[in-house]
Design a protein that fits this description.
This protein is an alpha+beta fold. It is 31% helix and 20% strand. The protein has one domain: Sandwich (Jelly Rolls).
Length: 338
C-alpha cells in the first residue's frame, strides 16, 4: 500500500489546485496525516471546480468493457426495435434522440442533446407505496441484449460502495466526520445512464448551440463517471479558466458533486459545471460511450446547509427529493420542442 505523501495520495493535473487526482488507497489506510492531506486537497478542489479524478477505486475495467459491448449492441439496433423501451427523463429505459436538453436546467433553450441513453435507477422497494411508486420502480432490461443485466448489476453494486466511500471522504473534508452524509444513504436513490454519443457521420452537423450534452450541473450528491477520451469529449468550467478540456487518465474515474451537495455545504463547494462537446468535424467517425452513476440520498432527507464558517450561503432547508424531481423535470424536452 502506498505510503503517506503528496506523490502517492494527491497529485495535481493540468491546472494546479483545480482538478487533483486522489488515490483512495492511502485514504483507506486510515493514516491520520495522509487523510488530512487528502481531505484538504479535496476541499480546495471542490471549492474551485467541483471535480476530482479518483484512482485506487478497485472498479473492474473488464466489467466496464462488458457493459459497453452489450450497450453498443443495443444502441446499434433499429429505432423500431428500441422504440418499445422509450421513456422520458427520469424513467427506466431508452432515452432516444431528442429526449433531453441539459442546458434547460440553466434556463438555456438549446437544441436537444446529441446522445442516446439507457437509463436505470434504484428499484429495491422501501415499503412506502407512495415513495416506491415515484423512486423505486423496477428497471427495464432489453431482451435483445441479455448480457447487459448481469454486468450492469455488478457494476451498480461497485458504484454504490464507492459512492459511500467518497461521501465519507467528503464528510471529513467538510470537517463534519465520516458519517455526516452516509447516515442519509441507508436506502438511497440513484440513477445510472449509459450514454452513447453517436458520430458526426451518424447524426450530421450539429445545430447552432447543440452539444452532445449541453452545459449543466448535476443534481444529486456525487456523480461517478467512467468516460472515454475524445475530441468531442468532456469540458469543465471554472471562473478562472472558463471552459477547458477535462483532464483524462484511463486509470481514473471522474467524480463531481451536484447541486444537492453544493446546497448542503452552503455553497462552500461548487456544483461542477460541465458539458460534452458536439461530434467534431475533424473526427467525423468518433463515437464515445460514458457510464454515469448519479448518487443521491434517502427520500425524505431534509437538506439543511451547514452554517458558517464552513457554509457560505444560508439556504432554506429543502426536501431532497422534491428538489431532485424539479431538477429532473427541468431537462426533459417537451414533445413539440425537439
Amino acid at each position: 500500500m502506498p505510503t503517506c505523501g503528496t506523490r502517492t495520495s494527491v497529485s495535481e493535473s493540468t491546472k494546479p489546485s483545480t482538478i487533483p487526482t486522489v488515490d483512495l488507497r492511502p485514504w483507506l489506510s486510515k493514516d491520520p496525516a495522509t487523510r488530512a492531506e487528502i481531505a484538504q486537497a479535496v476541499d480546495r478542489a471542490l471549492q474551485s471546480a467541483g471535480f476530482l479524478l479518483v484512482t485506487g477505486h478497485d472498479v473492474d475495467d473488464a466489467l466496464r468493457r462488458r457493459i459497453r459491448s452489450a450497450a453498443r449492441d443495443f444502441f446499434g439496433l433499429p429505432s423500431a426495435v428500441k422504440g418499445p423501451y422509450a421513456v422520458r427523463v427520469g424513467g427506466r429505459g431508452w432515452l432516444g434522440p431528442g429526449a433531453e436538453a441539459n442546458g434547460y436546467a440553466e434556463g438555456t433553450r438549446t437544441p436537444p442533446d446529441l446522445k442516446e441513453s439507457l437509463s436505470f435507477a434504484a428499484e429495491e422497494p422501501t415499503g412506502d407505496p407512495e415513495v416506491d411508486a415515484e423512486w423505486f420502480l423496477p428497471n427495464t432490461w432489453p431482451g435483445e441484449v441479455p448480457a447487459l443485466r448481469a454486468a450492469v448489476e455488478e457494476y451498480l453494486a461497485q458504484m454504490r460502495a464507492l459512492s459511500d466511500r467518497l461521501l465519507e471522504l467528503l464528510g471529513v473534508a467538510l470537517g463534519k466526520g465520516e458519517t455526516f452524509f452516509t447516515r442519509h444513504t441507508g436506502h438511497p436513490t440513484w440513477g445510472f445512464n449509459i450514454n452513447w454519443y453517436p458520430s458526426r457521420d451518424e447524426v450530421g452537423a450539429p445545430r447552432p448551440g447543440q452539444f452532445r450534452i449541453g452545459p449543466h450541473t448535476d443534481f444529486g450528491t456525487v456523480t461517478v463517471l467512467d468516460r472515454q477520451a475524445g475530441r468531442g469529449g468532456l469540458q469543465v468550467f471554472t471562473d478562472d479558466d472558463g471552459w477547458q478540456d477535462a483532464p483524462y487518465d484511463p486509470a481514473a474515474l471522474t467524480v463531481n458533486i451536484g447541486d444537492l451537495m453544493a446546497r448542503w455545504t452552503g455553497d462552500r463547494w461548487r456544483s461542477g459545471r460541465h458539458r460534452v462537446l458536439p461530434p467534431p468535424a475533424d473526427e467525423p467517425a468518433e463515437e464515445l460511450m460514458s457510464l454515469v452513476y448519479f448518487y443521491e440520498c434517502d427520500p425524505g432527507t431534509v437538506v439543511t446547509p451547514v452554517p458558517a464558517p464552513q457554509g457560505r450561503v444560508a439556504y432554506e432547508p429543502v426536501d431532497s427529493h422534491a428538489y431532485l424531481r424539479a431538477k429532473l423535470d427541468a431537462i426533459a424536452v417537451p414533445p413539440d420542442a425537439s
